[in-house]
Design goal:
The complex is a heterodimer of chains A (513) and B (355).
Chain A (H helix, E strand, L loop, with lengths): L6 H17 L5 H32 L6 H17 L1 H19 L1 H10 L4 H22 L17 H9 L16 H22 L15 H15 L1 H9 L3 H28 L6 H23 L24 H7 L3 E4 L2 E4 H24 L1 H11 L1 H6 L4 H27 L5 H16 L4 H24 L1 E2 L6 E2 L5 H16 L10
Antiparallel strand pairs in A: 1-2, 3-4
Chain B lengths: L1 H9 L1 H21 L3 H5 L5 H28 L8 H16 L5 H22 L5 H20 L4 H4 L5 E2 L13 H24 L1 H11 L1 H6 L4 H26 L2 E2 L6 H14 L5 H21 L3 H15 L3 H23 L3 H7 L1
Antiparallel strand pairs in B: 1-2
Helix pairs in contact in B: 2-4, 2-9, 4-9, 4-12, 4-13, 4-14, 5-6, 5-12, 6-12, 9-10, 10-12, 13-14, 13-16, 14-15, 14-16
Classes of the chains: A mainly alpha (513), B mainly alpha (355).
Chain lengths: 513, 355
């Protein structure tokens, strides 16, 4: 990944810095600091999406335009865990059980081998199983009890739940009602669906001469999923009550972990089932991710509704009182102040300090992953030439899936982290995707440090433009004060991108060939 | 005489399409009980509504054709294609409304803007390739979208509400002379289609296809590929601009969504559903999309885009050549296709046993 920054790139960055410095002359230092911190904050959220994007594009050559939607789904899942833990507890078992059937894939392959039928009939059997599974799903899944918000009832809508949770009050929720069939039966019906589906697919893709073993270790995942699902289902009410009454700091961490894990799963699924068959047709991959992004957006709209709402901040960042705003770092820990005084200006702890720190931490962690681990080495080699890596006997496909899932997970992390400060809306994904694309184009599409640099530049420019919209830019060496209107802010980043790309088609840190 | 015959046989399909679409309002008029004279005088009810849908489809088809030329034939994946369309739409609206120019002067302005835009995109062309080109065009188009949406321009463009109250020239006002508008739009579509067909068969068009297939090889053969790309860009820009003019003349409001990435994606969707690089696919795709949209909006209300998205993904995964492309392939290898299906789904033995 070591690349020389060429002279043009250095000149461009220098021009950028000079512009910022000159334009920032008229600003008091605290405004300068706050604006810079905000720029870092926006930059780190953009980076989380852009980093995944650049890894995926670098290794897989897939321009994953669904990245914005994954970011959005991450935020919404995080919101659900944080604000409606009971819904989360209701949904988890059925998802675990739907996965459990596929965890037994080794068994299905074994059985498909043992069944004495000629291959054609096996395929017919497989397809009929798939059909039965779909029919069963259509019967059981709508009858599975889930306690959820209601979109057309304002008192029960996500907005009300967010608002009340922000006030520190939990709205009373009615536990899920069984709909026609006992919940446990519906749950095990889910297992039956997934088992039928997995067995059917195993029969369809069956080929002879396979090595099979039924070693006990292979059963572990299945047993864990089964036990976990059953336990959560059995202790549904106490568990959701426990989560409801839990300290919101811990709940926020749980929300982050759950949303990242679920989107990682989603990304892996997407890559395995839809992107992999299209590796021979790159343009179609691009169009596919675009379509998947739209579908995801529509699904989010259908489930969580159109209006915007906010993920409440955890307790640790909500403190307000006599001792606030904090004057030292110690105050943040003792009084949980939401703001801190730096250079005479109020800086929000979560938005402007924690987010950049997390961004930088992730930057370093992923960099370490790329540099110091075996899989990172394979990824870096794959970015250079994935055919060669495959020729060396490494299963690149598996690494592809890993990278895609990693990228999706990073986007989800960005989504759930930005939800308390930027809020959740159906358009959030698209907006951020555009930002991330600009950042990548500036930094260089396949370059990981380029993603960081580009995101930072995009964040800084946006925030400075917003600030100048309030105070006006003193244009250097003249007395004219130029006030950009809010509409020009996104245009400024676009303009930067177009300029950079015209001078350096591969971005600041991209491969120049 | 001979050339005329060959012209007829060559463009049989599109000429039949032209005739059918020309007669369609009258036939529909007969079904709803108004005689052809009433339809001629724009007094039919359902036929007038249908003409309106037809006009929208033709505009979409012209737009999609220009995208097909750029993306399907020449292989330039532009995500800013709607800029041509939107700039022309807004330029028409502003010059009719604010400047009060007559239509022929507006058309001159449109020719100018389309050339300027194509040249703007062409500055980018030789420098950036592949994905970067996609992103630069996206950036340029988004900038235009932002400018249109900005509150500074509210007097000219109407910002996010859209451009309203554009005075329509009397002889082509869609609310009074709808049939005439319908015929004009249809005629333009057919002319554009025939011109595109001729273009593809011309040496320049052949080189464009060669650029899509393998640009470095075309370069090796001594073609200045950039010049060819600029030509294609000019044609596509001009065609999309014509669609934009028609859009402004037909619609009561020019909404800023036409400058959005979403509108380019609509064009992509039409081309994909119809069949990439088939030209006639764009027309078929426009029909499918518009009718699907109308039907779904009736049944599903707000979740119609979800179904459109799923249709799109299904097409990408399973019908990559689109409707027209698959039909063309199917005519050649329908037997092989069936055999593949039988083998894949394990029906081979069954078929043999039945025999």
């Amino acid at each position: 990944m070591k690349k020389k920054l060429n002279l043009t790139g250095i000149l461009l960055i220098a021009a950028f810095v000079v512009f910022l410095v000159l334009a920032g002359r008229g600003m008091p230092p605290r405004d300068l600091l706050i604006t810079t911190l905000r720029g870092f904050s926006v930059g780190s959220v953009t980076f989380l999406v852009a980093a995944g994007f650049s890894l995926i594009f670098g290794l897989l050559d897939v321009l994953n335009l669904a990245q914005g939607t994954l970011y959005m789904i991450g935020a919404y899942v995080g919101w659900t865990v944080f604000v409606r833990p009971d819904t989360f507890v209701d949904v988890t078992p059925i998802i675990l059980f739907l996965m459990a059937g596929f965890a037994l894939n080794f068994l299905w392959d074994y059985l498909a081998d043992k069944i004495k039928l000629d291959p054609q009939k096996k395929k017919i059997l497989g397809w009929s199983m798939v059909v039965v599974a779909v029919a069963l799903a259509a019967f059981i899944l709508p009858r599975y009890p889930i306690a959820m918000w209601q979109l057309n009832n304002y008192a029960q809508s996500p907005i009300s739940f967010s608002y009340m949770a922000d006030q520190g009050i939990r709205l009373p929720v009615a536990p899920a009602q069984a709909k026609g069939i006992p919940p446990m039966l519906a749950l095990y019906g889910g297992l039956a669906i997934s088992a039928l589906l997995a067995f059917g697919l195993a029969l369809i893709r069956y080929k002879e001469n396979r090595q099979h073993s039924l070693h006990w270790k292979k059963w572990q995942v299945f047993v864990i999923l089964l036990l976990l699902g059953t336990l959560i289902m059995a202790f549904n009410t106490p568990l959701s009550n426990w989560l409801m009454d839990m300290n919101t700091n811990w709940l926020f961490i749980i929300a982050i972990v759950v949303s990242v894990l679920s989107v990682v799963g989603l990304g892996a699924l997407m890559e395995k089932t839809m992107i992999q068959p299209l590796y021979s047709r790159p343009v179609y991959q691009l169009m596919l991710t675009l379509g998947l992004g739209t579908i995801g957006m529509q699904l989010v709209k259908a489930i969580w509704g159109m209006p915007e709402f906010v993920l409440p901040k955890p307790e640790f960042f909500r403190g307000a009182g006599a001792a606030c705003p904090a004057t030292s770092i110690k105050d943040i820990f003792t009084h949980n102040c939401s703001t801190i005084m730096i250079l005479g200006g109020r800086v929000r702890v979560y938005d402007e300090i924690v987010l950049p720190i997390i961004g930088i931490t992730v930057l370093i962690l992923v960099w370490l992953l790329l540099k110091k681990t075996r899989i990172g080495m394979i990824i870096r080699a794959g970015v250079q030439d994935s055919n060669m890596v495959e020729a060396l006997g490494i299963n690149v496909r598996r690494v592809f899936t890993f990278v895609f899932a990693l990228g999706a997970g990073l986007a989800a992390l960005g989504g759930v982290l930005s939800a308390p400060s930027n809020g959740l809306s159906v358009a959030m994904g698209e907006k951020l995707l555009l930002n991330a694309l600009i950042a990548l184009a500036i930094g260089g599409l396949t370059s990981y440090p380029g993603a960081a640099l580009g995101s930072l530049m995009v964040g800084l420019i946006q925030q400075f433009m917003i600030k100048y919209g309030q105070i006006g830019i003193p244009i250097p060496f003249t007395d004219i004060i130029f006030k950009p209107t809010p509409a020009i802010i996104p245009a400024s980043t676009m303009l930067l991108m177009v300029i950079v790309l015209l001078i350096l088609p591969n971005g600041l840190l991209g491969r120049q060939d | 005489m001979k050339t005329k015959q060959s012209f007829l046989s060559r463009y049989k399909g599109i000429l039949i399409f032209f005739a059918v679409m020309l007669l369609l309002p009258f036939v529909i008029g007969l079904f709803e009980g108004s005689n052809p004279l009433e339809v001629w005088n724009n007094q039919g009810r359902f036929s007038k509504y249908l003409e309106g849908i037809g006009i929208e489809i033709f505009i979409l088809a012209i737009f999609a054709l220009s995208y097909d030329l750029l993306f399907g034939i020449t292989g330039l994946m532009s995500f800013g294609h709607t800029m041509f369309f939107a700039v022309a739409a807004y330029a028409t609206g502003i010059s009719l409304k604010t400047l009060g120019l007559p239509l022929w002067q507006v058309l001159l302005i449109i020719v100018g803007t389309s050339i300027v835009q194509a040249l703007l995109f062409s500055i980018v062309l030789p420098r950036v390739k592949g994905v970067t080109f996609t992103m630069v065009t996206l950036g340029l188009a988004s900038m235009f979208h932002i400018i249109v949406m900005s509150s500074d321009m509210i007097k000219l463009t109407g910002a996010d509400v859209g451009l309203q109250g554009v005075p329509k020239p009397a002889f082509i006002d869609p609310s009074i002379e709808r049939l005439r508008f319908y015929v004009v739009a249809l005629l333009i579509l057919v002319l554009v289609y025939i011109f595109y067909r001729r273009f593809i068969d011309s040496p320049t068009g052949r080189v464009s296809i060669a650029i899509r297939e393998n640009e470095s090889r075309a370069k090796m053969l001594g073609y200045n590929t950039t010049a060819f790309k600029v030509v294609v860009m000019l044609i596509a820009s001009f065609t999309a601009s014509i669609a934009g003019v028609l859009h402004t003349l037909y619609q009561p409001i020019v909404s800023p969504t036409i400058a959005d990435l979403g509108y380019t994606v609509t064009g992509l969707l039409i081309v994909l559903i119809g069949g990439i690089a088939t030209l006639s696919g764009s027309i078929v795709g426009a029909f499918v999309i518009k009718i699907l949209d109308l039907g779904l909006r009736g049944i599903m209300k707000d979740s119609a885009p979800l179904v459109t998205g799923i249709v799109y993904v299904v097409f990408v995964l399973f019908v990559p050549y689109g409707i027209v492309g698959s039909l063309k392939l199917g005519g050649l290898r329908i037997k092989e296709g069936w055999q593949m299906l039988i083998e894949r789904f394990g029906l081979k033995k069954l078929c043999e046993k039945k025999k």
